[in-house]
Write a structure and sequence with these properties.
With 434 residues, the chain is mostly beta strands. It folds into two domains: 204 residues, Single-stranded right-handed beta-helix, Pectin lyase-like (Pectate Lyase C-like); 196 residues, Single-stranded right-handed beta-helix, Pectin lyase-like (Pectate Lyase C-like). The chain is built from four helices and 28 strands. The protein has a 20-stranded mixed β-sheet that branches. Strands 19-21-23-25-27 form a five-stranded parallel β-sheet, with no helix packed on it. GO terms for molecular function: polygalacturonase activity.
């Protein structure tokens, strides 16, 4: 009997420590402090409780959710949408448990595009999510990097965080480590500021070919308007920040990117006979360290093959009013590229078939070093040639021989300004191929 009472007391004590009880704030809202479940067990339940209790404030008030300076293990999916006027403070670490990969493959949540899914679906209006430079999302992604073994867009491999249906909100001072797949997707959202964000999705195995970090994008926007990325640092094996379908009024500034592919507009045109756009994107004051490109634009071909995420093509629309200015390149492969050759699972050909149009693109004030004599490759589609591509003040050096790069390779470009095309692309660049 005594042992039973002791066990009962322990259980009730543990339950009390992890139950979120709202308390009143001076502003008239309520506050929830999230306490992790003891023993490193799954804290997703208490996190859900906190958002249910304090995630939506009454009119005229603000609520608060506080994660303490400790580690919270997360072993199940989170869906916290419909939030309203809430300030979230992350002082510690949210650490994802990937010991049961089968669970995540069976339960990851649809994120609304390309048949992809996510570990956490998050959203609402009037949100601040503050990490104070210390709050961390640790996806413990090495388990996934080993599991997929270089296979692209593995079905139901979860993204780290999907910000969906979110308006008038700020995410600041957050760290993302070893995301399971894409780090962050901003979808069906507008008027969102994301600043002072650090992403490191490099493998801890020490040998990159044993666990290549495929599809570990820093951030992607889809059906998103007026999104600002400011003071980001991204070290990964894929696109740093990637505005995709129906991304408008996107600003990326004052950021540094390492070892991945650089800034990527697209891929787009993946859905057959579907109209999509990218409009008014500005990227400025960017430093790229050993990335593949400073920036690039990628579309699928005009021939539909297979289904998303690893197949597609045949879409149409346009990408326009794209500004890239003040880029500092450190041993980058090429300053800028356009490719309209993205194809089913790395297949080649059909580069002249895309009806997706790329126009009104401006590059200015690019300096630093690239690894070849090719400044740019503009592999546009003959079915819808690129037009109004302007370069100015491009001052680069070949890092291998310290000469000035001279090649501007072009195919199906009309009304180029500030450079002369020196010949066609020397090889097909299928952005899908890793």
């Amino acid at each position: 009997m005594l042992l039973l009472l002791i066990l009962l007391g322990f259980f009730l004590g543990a339950h009390a420590r992890t139950t979120t009880k709202p308390t009143a704030t001076q502003s008239g809202g309520v506050s929830c402090t999230v306490r992790p479940v003891a023993g490193g067990r799954d804290s997703a339940g208490v996190i859900r409780n906190a958002f249910e209790s304090c995630g939506s404030a009454k009119a005229g008030h603000r609520n608060r959710i506080v994660f303490e300076n400790t580690t919270y293990t997360i072993a199940s999916v989170l869906d916290t949408t419909g939030l309203k006027d809430v300030d979230i403070e992350l002082h510690g670490t949210l650490s994802w448990d990937n010991s049961n990969i089968s669970y995540w493959l069976e339960n990851s949540l649809p994120m609304g595009y390309q048949n992809q899914s996510t570990a956490w679906r998050f959203g609402g209006d009037g949100i601040t999510f503050q990490g104070y430079g210390a709050g961390t999302f640790n996806g413990n992604g090495d388990a996934w990097y080993r599991f997929i073994n270089g296979r692209s867009n593995y079905p139901r491999r979860p993204h780290q965080l999907t910000i969906t249906g979110t308006t008038n909100s700020t995410f600041e001072g957050l760290n993302f480590l070893q995301s399971q797949m894409w780090t962050m997707t901003v979808i069906h959202s507008s008027n969102v500021l994301l600043q002072d964000i650090y992403v490191n999705n490099t493998s801890k195995t020490g040998v990159s070919n044993l666990a290549p970090t495929v599809n570990t994008d820093g951030a992607d926007t889809i059906y998103a308007n007026n999104i600002t990325f400011r003071r980001w640092i991204v070290d990964n094996g894929d696109d740093a920040i990637s505005p995709k379908a129906n991304s408008t009024n996107i600003l990326i500034e004052d950021s540094q990117f390492y070892r991945g592919s650089g800034i990527a507009l697209g891929s787009i045109g993946q859905y057959d006979d579907t109209f999509e756009i990218i409009d008014n994107v500005t990227c400025r004051n960017i430093t790229s360290h050993r990335t593949k490109y400073g920036a690039y634009i990628k579309t699928w071909t005009g021939i539909n093959k297979g289904y998303p995420p690893n197949g597609g093509g045949g879409g149409y629309g346009y990408a326009q009013n794209l500004v890239f200015e003040d880029f500092k390149l450190v041993d980058v492969q090429k300053a800028f590229t356009i490719t309209q050759c993205t194809n089913f699972e790395g297949n080649k050909g059909d580069c002249d078939t895309s009806k997706f149009n790329i126009r009104n693109v401006s590059l200015s004030d690019f300096s630093g070093t690239i690894r070849t004599d090719i400044v740019t490759t503009l592999q546009c589609s003959a079915a819808s040639p690129c037009r109004n591509i302007e370069f100015s003040n491009i001052v680069l050096e070949n890092s291998s021989n310290h000469t000035t790069p001279r090649q501007y390779q072009c195919d199906s470009v009309k009304r180029a300004a500030g450079f002369n095309c020196t010949g066609p692309p020397d090889g097909e660049d299928n952005a899908f191929k890793k």
